[in-house]
């Protein structure tokens, strides 16, 4: 009888210990799950300013951005998602070229800028208080365009005038190309915006013009010829960057992730809907659909915010600008990039 009592007591003790262990495991599971709720609560506390001011380059002054950000804008979720964090008003500002956008940042009238690598890098080197959010587009082509009965090669440009938009990614391409061919001292480069260049070309005021995407293929469609392209010189291709002002970032450190998450969603969507995206781009830019398709490939918009190849490309751009004295001072690209 005693033996049975002891066995029963032992069994009860074992069951008690097992119950305690199960309870402890349950408590640990609850503790493990807690951070998810905590993160959700943390995200819910993010509050952005009521107004977001976005600047970008537009040839036709259209208030719709043409990249993935514009796709998100046209689908409605660029604004609807950010409104969840307190943004009530979105102000879109267009600029004819990058240096003008830099002036707006310097004047304190923008929070975010989307534009070419050369003006963005030069602006930072000149002391513009920006931080890099992402490399939104890579491997942007440029076309060195001449009249059909004009210059046929780079060598034909010797002793003549050419033009492009000063401070743009096309200007870096053109300057680098002429230097590479030993023509930098024999060819004069003038500043002229793309929209004004065709008239100068047709009159013979300039022998060639370095055009960006959209404009380049459009001129070729009209019968002009390309005597060179940046695509033939991979390191001379351009990139489009997105920057945020240091002041806005200091007050809203979560903004880059929110913005990049929206951009990533848009890039994934346009890769699955290429034809629809080309049509959207044509409507937003004002270029014919075939010109848009000739201007770029969808994979030029990377899903990731800053691919190593993209960082390498803008590092090469910065190096050239510093070496040529076009950028006022050197700096580390990775230090410029937001974490």
Automatic annotation (TrEMBL):
Keyword Signal carried by entry = yes
Q: Which PROSITE patterns match?
A: PROKAR_LIPOPROTEIN
Q: Which domain of life is it from?
A: Bacteria
Would you indicate the residue range of the signal peptide?
1-23
Keywords in alphabetical order: Signal
Can you give the residue ranges of the SsuA/THI5-like domain?
A: 97-255
The record ties this protein, via PANTHER family, to: ALIPHATIC SULFONATES-BINDING PROTEIN-RELATED
Protein name listed in UniProt: PhnD/SsuA/transferrin family substrate-binding protein
